[in-house]
Please model this.
Amino acid sequence: VYRWIKTPKAIIFTSLMLGLLFAVACGTSAPATTEPTAPPTTAPAAGAAAVPTPQASPTPTGGAVACGGDPTPTPYACAAPALIQELDERFPLPPPVPPWPPRRGGVLHIPTSVLRDLDPTSDYGTEMLLIYDQLLEWEATWYFPEVQRIPTIRNNLVESWEMVDPATWDFHLKQGVTFHDRPPVNGREMTAEDVKYSYELLRTKPGWSLAATSVESVEVLDTYTARFNLKFALAEFPTLHTNGFAPAIVPREAVEAPGGLLENPIGTGAFILEEFVPGEGALLVRNPNYHLSLKGEQLPFVDAVRLIFTRDAATQTALFRTQQVDLLRPPTLDSLYQILDTVPDAWLYRVPSFMWGAYTLLLNLDEEPFNDVRVRRAISMAINREVVKEVINRGDASLIGPFPWALAGFTERADYTYENLGPYYEYNPEKARELLAEAGYPDGFETTIELAEYRGYAFEDFAVLVAKFLSDIGIRAELKQLDTATWTTKRRGGEPFDGILAALTPSGSGPTDWHWVYLPYHSTSGPTVNIGSIYDAQVDELLNQWRETPAEEQLAIQKQLWERLTDQMYRVQVIVPPHYRLTQSYVHAGGNPYCWYIGFCSYEAKTTWLTENAPVRGFERFSQ
Amino acid sequence: MQATMWQYVARRCLLALLVLLLVSFVVFSLVRMLPGDTVLLQLSEFGALTPEALEQARRELGLDRPFLEQYGTWMWGLLRGDLGESLTTGRPVSEMLARRINVTLHLAIMSLIISLVVAIPIGILSAIRQDSVLDYGGRLFAILGLSLPNFWIGVVVITYLAIWFNWVPVRALEPIWVNPLKTLPQIIIPAAIIGFRLSAVTMRMTRSSLLEVLREDYIRTAWAKGLRERTVIVRHVLKNAFIPVVTIIGQLFSLLLGGTVIIEFIFLLPGVGSLTLDAVMLRDYTLIQGIVMFFATVMVGMNLLVDLTYAWFDPRIRY
Model:
C-alpha cells in the first residue's frame, strides 16, 4: 500500500476522489453560499439593513449586531436579509387569492406526526377535526397583519348565540346537520342533547379540558338550543368554542357501541375515516352530506385526505420532492431553501407566528434568585435578541412579548418594536449588571439551563447563546440536556425545573385572550396551565376585571396587562420565527389563503382544492 | 447423552424463567422511576390540561394505585398471557406488538440474509487469500460498514433517490408472501443499509475465526494428506470456524428486532423499534413493559438456541 501511494496513479486517483467529494459537498450545501441572487459577501451593512423586509427589526440598543452597524460584518449575518428579501419578492404578501370556482376531486396528501388514533375520548389531535366538528371555528385569524387584522368566526354547528347574562349563554344550533351515515348512528340529526353529552364527556379529558374549564353545566332547552351555565361571568365565552381544543361534538351511540369511537369514529365533520393504519397513516373520504358550504359551493372539494405519518425531516422532504405529500412545514430558513432549490414551483406561505413556537426562558419563580424582579429583568436585558434571531433562523424572526402582539392592540407589523415592549427587552448588559448588583448579586450566581431536542427547534443553539449572554453579566449557567419526555413534562408544569428551562412559550390554541393571557397568568389556573406558577395579585385583579368586561372594552385592560407583564418579566420571551408552509403548485388553499394550517385555523383541508395538474391518486384504501 | 441434553434444556428453561421474572420486576420498577408524566406527554404540541383533569386521567389509568398492587395486577395478567393495555391508546399491548413485529421481522430477516450472503463469502475469501487484493478489499468493505452510521446512509440514500430517481418509500408494507413484487423493492433498500453494517461485523468475525482455524494442526494434517482445498475448507475449517460466527449472528438477530428504529423512521416502516421509542417518549408504562418482556423472551430463547447449535457444529461440545 505504501509503495502504491507513492505512484502517480494514486495521486491522480486521490485528487479525483477529493474533487468528487468537494463537488458533492458544494451541491448539497445551503443555498446561502450558492444562490446567485444572494448578496456578495462584501455587501455593506447599511445595504442589508435597508432591505424592506416585513419583519425588519428595529435598531437594537447597544448590541453588537453584525448587520446593524458593525463595520466588519460577517458574510453569514449579512446574507440572511437578502435571502428573506428574495422570498418576499417570489412570494409576496398578501398571497394571491385562489381562482374561483374551485375544481372538485383529487386526494390531498398531508404529512403529520404519528397519531396514536383518532378517538377524541382517549387522545387529542387537530387532525381529529377533519372528522368531528366543534360549535364554532375560526375562518381567519391574525396571520397576516397587512391584510387580516380582525378574526372571522365561522358558524360551524351553531346558527347564533346570545348572552342571557355574562355567566349564562344560549347557543342555537343549525337544523339539519347530520352525523356520518355509518352504523350505529346512521346519519341521524345532531341536536342539543349531543352538545350536552359531548361537553360532559370530554370536559375532563386530556386535550379538551382547557376550553371547558369555565363550564359548570350544559342544559338542553329544546332540540336545537343548548344553554351553558358558567362558573363565572365570561364575556369572551363564545370564542372559546372556536379553537382546536373546544370539545368536539360526538354521538352517544358511537361512544357507547363496542369499541367506542376508536371503532366507530363518527362525527359531523367534512371527512369520514375510512381506514386507520397504526404507525403509517389514515385515509379519510369526503362526507357527501357535509353541511357547510363556501360561496355556495358545498365543502369539501377534495374526494379524500390521506394523512401520512412521518417522523424524519429528510423523509418528509423526500416525500414532498416526489409529490407524495402536498404540503410541508420546513422548520428553518435553511431547510426551506434546500427544498425550494429542488422544488422550484412550490408555493410558500411565510406566515408570521401569532406566538406559537416562541423561544422563551421559563424561570423557577418559587426560588431565589428568580423570585426577584430585578434578576428577571437583568436576564432579559443580557440577551441580544438580534443575535438570537441570526443564530436561530438567519434573522428571519420577530420580537415577541408576554402574549401575542395583536391581543395588546398591536395589529401592524411595524408595531413589533422594542419601544412597545418597554425597557427590559433591550440588550443592555451594563444595566443588567447594575440590576443584578441591586438585587444583591454583584458577582452573579450559578444556575442551570435545562433543554432538550424537540421537533427540530434549535434549543441547543438557543441555550448556548443564552448561557453566553448570561456569563457576560456574571451569571454562570450550566447546560443540562434532558430527554424530551422529561423536558416536556417540565414544560407542561408536571415537574418543577431547576433554574431556567429553555422552552417554548406556553401557548394557546386559538387567538383568544382566555388561552393566551387569562389561563397562563392567572394564579388559580394551576401549575399545569400557569407554567411556573405565577402569582401576581395585580395581574389577577386585572384578569378578573377583564373577564367580566364587555368585549369592546377589554382592549384597555389587555394593554394594562401587557404593561404589567413586560415590566415583571415572569417569563423571558425572546424571539419567534415565522411558520413556513410549502404547498405543491397544484394545491390551492381554499377560499382563504391566509390560514393554511389544519386545526389551528379553519381546518383548511375542507376548503382546499387541487388543480388538474395534481397526481392521480386512488382512495379505496390507504396503501394505494 | 440424550437424557443429559434434556436435563440441560430443562435447567436452562428454569433459569430463563427466573431471568424473566427478574426482568419483569426491574423493568416495572425502572419505568416508574423515569421522570415524565404519561398523561401530560400525551397532549399535542400546544395542549394543556387542568390539574383536576390530570388527576382524573391518572386515576383512570390506575397510576394512583400502590406500586406493588400495580405490579401484582400486571404479573397476574402476564401469567395468563395478557401483556395489558397501552396507557396511551387503550389497545392490547400484544395486539400492537403483533402488528408491528411483522414489519420488523421482514426487515430483520432480510437484513440478515443480505449480510450473510455478502459477509460469509467475503470473509472466507479474505481469510483463505490473506493479504491479497481481495483481502484488502474485504477489509476496506468491513471498515466502511462499521464506520458509516446507518442513519447517515439512510438519510443520504433517501435524499438522493428522491432527487435523482424520484423514488421514496412506499406506504404500507404488505407481507412478502401476499405481494412479493411490491414488498421486496420496498424492503430491500432499508434492509441493505442495515445488512451492510451487519455484514461488516459478520465478515470480520468469519475472517478472524477462519484464520485461527486455518493455523490449527489438524488443518495442516488435512493439507498434508493431500485433500483438495474445497474439502479442507468446507469440511474441516468452516464447521469449526462457524461457532463464534453463529453466536454473533444469533445476537445480531436479537438486536435487530429492536435496533432498527432509525431506519424504520427514515423509510416509514412502522416496526417494533419505532413502537418502543414512542412508548418510551410517551412513558407508556404497560407498552414498555410488554415490549421489554417480549425482547427478553426472544433474547433468552435465541441464546438457548445458539447454545444448542454449538453441538451440531462441534461434536466435542457436551451438555
User: Anything to note?
Assistant: Confidence is low (pLDDT under 50) at residues 26-78, 596-600 of chain A. Chain A has 18 helices and 23 strands. Residues 8-28 of chain A form the longest helix (21 residues). The longest strand of chain A covers residues 158-165.
